[in-house]
Specification:
With 433 residues, this protein is an alpha/beta fold. The chain is built from eleven helices and 21 strands. The protein binds 5'-O-[hydroxy(phenylacetyl)phosphoryl]adenosine.
């Protein structure tokens, strides 16, 4: 269950001493190798010598996605390309992608971080795992790939898409572990059911991640595929997958704290929040050479629990992100997280785990339409207007109770909403059109 037990269970005091040493190293490294950071640190009056405790990290200026974009493509790299052995990029919705580079040492650390998280939920050298994240510039597939290989698992790099073949191989190879987004896992389950082969699939473990998934949605995926589903968090700018992940207890995602220093800040003011409070996650990498990050603003909203975990790991645990601060919808002045809506919807057995949120503006007022799909067990409802209206009314009522705002609930027929093979895109904000 452990890949590097000594590190994963290190007493906190010792761990924090290691973090401090590595934080100083990172600051010095950035000063010496990256003119962008050298200028910023100098302006802020920060030097490695001035960092005496971990909380001194607060004197370092934040780094944002815009900083990576402004220095496109390699301006934040800490090594010449000769020493960069891999490049990944995250596809931005607008303009150029965010580019990241890895040295050999970075790849080695990345493999360790991922291997730890896979071992923590029971993956081992006996595991046969299908990787259904898209291979390519996205960090998800190759990140899990090398981590699982390090663990000695049998890795089947199917990539995303081609779902019928994916399902055929699952049966033929007796694949026991699936790596994908939770939404693609749900789709694979539905497709296998439709093909009449769900019983021939023997998946046990789902190593999911890369997108938000409420506990209610996760329960749906577990029911559909018959797996034990676990959550993994990461982002390209920091490494990819491997930043944090659940252990078998599933009481938060253990942050690989020997490689990452985490803080929680108030996203509006930038003020550091006391331990345990919810806010925006800010991460400083502690070992990266290719593209180190000083106080990177992730935009993900979460909280961190520093209590020891019953699994024996001393690494702090972050809560499932409530969402990204930039995904938060402001509807008529009220903050709404899509995850709140998902939690409400998934409590209705009559509906399938597929929904879409459409935001529009008319007469200077925002309107939120929640489109939800009927499940395949409730097709008979289509013929019963009164029953449909009653269901719609209950969903509307529960949404209003949780969100505090009016929504328009639209029930749509089974299999009419889009399915996703990567990260699900459930929000359609038409307000600026
Ligand atoms: O999604 C890295 C990854 C790949 C993580 C595979 C886990 C598994 P990006 O494409 O750069 O990297 O997207 C990063 O995705 O800031 C979060 O908003 C979101 N995200 C990632 N994992 C989770 C998760 C990869 N477990 C962005 N729960 C992050 C919720 C997640 N959101």
């Amino acid at each position: 269950m452990f890949f590097q037990k000594e590190m994963e269970t290190m007493p906190r005091e010792k761990l924090e001493a290691l973090q401090l040493e590595r934080l100083k190293w990172t600051v010095q490294y950035c000063m010496d190798h990256i003119p962008f950071y050298a200028a910023r640190l100098e302006k802020a009056g920060v030097t490695a010598e001035k960092i005496k405790t971990l909380s001194d990290v607060q004197y370092i200026p934040y780094t944002t996605k815009a900083d990576i974009r402004d220095t496109y493509p390699f301006g934040l790299f800490g090594k010449p390309l000769k020493e960069i052995v891999r490049i990944h990029a995250s596809s931005g919705t607008t303009g150029k992608p965010t580019v990241v580079g890895y040295t050999k040492r970075d790849l080695d650390n990345w493999g360790d971080c991922v291997a730890r998280l896979c071992a923590a939920v029971g993956a081992s050298d006996e595991t046969i795992v299908q990787i259904a994240f898209g291979y390519g510039l996205f960090t998800g597939a190759l990140g899990l790939h090398y981590g699982l290989e390090k663990l000695g698992a049998t890795v089947v790099p199917t990539s995303s898409g081609n779902t019928e073949k994916q399902i055929m191989l699952m049966q033929d190879f007796q694949t026991d572990t699936l790596v994908s987004t939770p939404s693609y896992a749900q789709y694979i389950g539905e497709k296998a059911k439709e093909m009449g082969v769900l019983e021939n699939i023997h998946l046990k473990l789902g190593l999911f991640g890369s997108e938000g998934c409420t506990p209610e949605m996760r329960a749906q995926v577990e029911k559909t595929l018959g797996v034990f589903a676990t959550d993994n968090y990461g982002m390209s700018e920091l490494m990819g997958p491997g930043v944090s992940g659940e252990c078998i207890r599933r009481e938060g995602m253990h942050i690989n704290e020997d490689h990452f220093l985490a803080e929680i800040i108030n996203p509006a003011t930038g003020e550091v929040l006391p331990r345990g409070e919810q806010g925006e996650l800010v991460i400083t990498t502690l070992t990266k050479e290719g593209i180190p990050m000083l106080r990177y603003r992730t935009k993900d909203i979460t909280s961190i629990n520093y209590e020891p975990c019953a699994c024996g790991r001393t690494f702090a645990r972050m809560a499932k992100p409530a969402g990204r601060s930039d995904d938060m919808l402001k509807i008529r002045g009220v903050n709404v997280f899509p995850s709140q809506i998902e939690s409400v919807l998934m409590k209705f057995p009559e509906i399938a785990p597929h929904y879409q949120l459409v935001v529009t503006r008319a007469n200077f007022s925002d309107a939120l339409e929640v489109k939800v799909e009927l499940s395949d067990d409730t097709l008979h409802l289509i013929e019963n207007y009164a029953a449909l209206e009653e269901l719609r009314g209950r969903i509307h009522h529960d949404l209003k109770t949780v969100l505090g705002i009016e929504t328009k609930v639209s029930l749509v027929e089974h299999k009419t909403l889009e399915r996703f093979q990567g990260k699900a895109q459930r929000i359609l904000d038409l307000r600026n059109q």
